[in-house]
Amino acid sequence: MPTLRIDHDKCTECRMCLLACEEIGINAVYMELEPRHRFEIDVHKCTYPTCVVCIMYCPAPGSIVEDETGRSLVPPPPDLWRDRPKKWLRDAILVPKER
Amino acid sequence: MSTTLPGKELAQELEAQSRRQELRTPMERVIEAAASNSLTEDQFFRLTGQLWALNRMFYYVYGAWGSSLTINQYPPSVDYLFAKQVYDDSTHEMLYSQAILQRGWVKFQRSALRHPYCQFTPASGIGLYVFSMRGLANYDHNLRMAAMNLGPKVLELSWLERLGEAIQDEYLAKLFSSQVPETRSHVLMGRFTVERFVAEQVDADLCRMLVPMARADYVTALTGIADFVLNESTSS
Questions:
Q1: How large is the ipTM?
Q2: Which position has the higher pLDDT, A91 or B204?
Q3: Binary contact (A60, B184; C-beta < 8 A)
Q4: Which of B53, B82, B115, B166 is the most buried (most CB within 10 A)?
């Protein structure tokens, strides 16, 4: 499964990804205290590509990238929506909470 | 998707200008005193009180800026980032207020507001800076965000980080260090705004005028604060 990472050269550290991820109960975005209190994505908790909430809310283009391909996902590319199963919202919101 | 960043070089230029000055602000004297453990409890109260007075005034500054933002003038991301900055500076204001109460320098918040160390004096360095920032309400949002976040905020980030490391009292060290991630975020937001929303030559020229102006006014405010803390004057 592909994973996400934050590109710190583009990120404004605005916390929106952290808030959105927390809000739907996935809690994959966290603040790495060392060395510089930066936001990171825990690939073990992140449910991408089922959930793309951080990508939807991120205000800074290019900040979140797919680790394997290196392609920028902010703003979300069209295929992210086209290939999405209809029950993506249920999968993204309910399944992690039931775990 | 490739994004063109019209103001990328300008953002780098403005930030680099401010970085060259970050080790030459009047706060160096305060950092030096803190590192040599020679700041008294009363001097820490002066410092916190004055920084609290400065941060309180940002409600007044951001109020003017916010009221001149019109709907759909910028993409929602710009409005969101501005709201986040208002929220962060409000948090910092509350941190100072909390510290003043926590350290027992005053008993109640109302007494803090009346205390001479926490007063806002219009005819002071802080006053000059605050009114200068308020005056930026007349400029477009991209320009004022550039002026503040690539000018004063770069200097603030530097002294906050080093003051937090220099202070030996754990509570006060954390008071300053805890503001570093948000202040760094403000600098990054300034860079973001300039990179994407300063495209015209006239805007670039205005940025080149406003950033040094905001920085100079901020240095005046810091001079007042440092003098007041180190007892070199009776009012900042």
A1: 0.78
A2: B204
A3: no
A4: B53
